[in-house]
From TrEMBL:
<dbReference type="InterPro" id="IPR017923">
    <property type="entry name" value="TFIIS_N"/>
</dbReference>
<keyword id="KW-0539">Nucleus</keyword>
<feature type="domain" description="TFIIS N-terminal">
    <location>
        <begin position="33"/>
        <end position="115"/>
    </location>
</feature>
<protein>
    <recommendedName>
        <fullName>TFIIS N-terminal domain-containing protein</fullName>
    </recommendedName>
</protein>
<feature type="region of interest" description="Disordered">
    <location>
        <begin position="1"/>
        <end position="23"/>
    </location>
</feature>
<dbReference type="InterPro" id="IPR035441">
    <property type="entry name" value="TFIIS/LEDGF_dom_sf"/>
</dbReference>
<dbReference type="InterPro" id="IPR003617">
    <property type="entry name" value="TFIIS/CRSP70_N_sub"/>
</dbReference>
<dbReference type="GO" id="GO:0005634">
    <property type="term" value="C:nucleus"/>
</dbReference>
<dbReference type="Pfam" id="PF08711">
    <property type="entry name" value="Med26"/>
</dbReference>
Length: 117
């Protein structure tokens, strides 16, 4: 089959679709579920004792570490009730939960300050 010179070349879709390099923010519902799970785990860990390494305390710390790595924007932080919960967790008796929640608060404050400037 001959193609004339005035027609465009045949369409061949052999390129690989690439993901955008832009980081997407998570949804509000997902962040609220993480916050709810962390607060429940912290309450159970508190009932077991402050200086006891319980699975619930480890779960709460892991969730807080995950929250620190999430791609968030200032609107999502201010829209959820997460900062109030983190301030509550920063007064927790468990030192690991307390220090990790303070680290998340500092990270979120830096995100909020970037929006202002």
């Amino acid at each position: 089959m001959d193609f004339s010179d005035d027609l465009p070349p045949p369409c061949v879709n052999d390129h690989v679709k690439r993901r955008s390099k832009k980081r997407r923010t998570i949804r509000t519902k997902h962040l609220e579920e993480l916050i709810s799970t962390a607060i429940r785990a912290a309450h159970v860990a508190r009932d077991k004792g402050f200086y006891i390494v319980s699975p619930e305390a480890i779960q709460c710390v892991e969730i807080l570490r995950h929250m620190r790595t999430l791609p968030l924007n200032a609107r999502l932080i201010s829209k959820t009730d997460g900062l109030r919960v983190l301030l509550f967790l920063s007064k927790n008796g468990n030192p690991k939960i307390r220090s990790e929640s303070n680290a998340v608060i500092d990270h979120w404050k830096s995100i909020l300050q970037r929006k202002v400037h």
